[in-house]
Design a protein that fits this description.
Length: 86
Amino acid sequence: MEFCDAAGLNVLVTAGREAGQRSGELRLVSRNESFRRLLESTLLDAGLRVYDSLAHAVLAPPARVSPHDGTDTPVPKRAEAAVPGL
């Protein structure tokens, strides 16, 4: 991934939530350190799982699903403020 703005982050968060509501999960594959830092700085790394390879993503155990809405981890309020549209 070369570029990801607030709209792209919103798409990822929405896809992750929808997958969680369907008893699934979104697994991202990226070795791009800038993308990983972006997720960390917006606190989205708490809810979006990123793997170094497709093999790691496929073989990883399922995320622990919390009872609040079926997603892995709720999006922190700071992240919602940092990324318009969340």
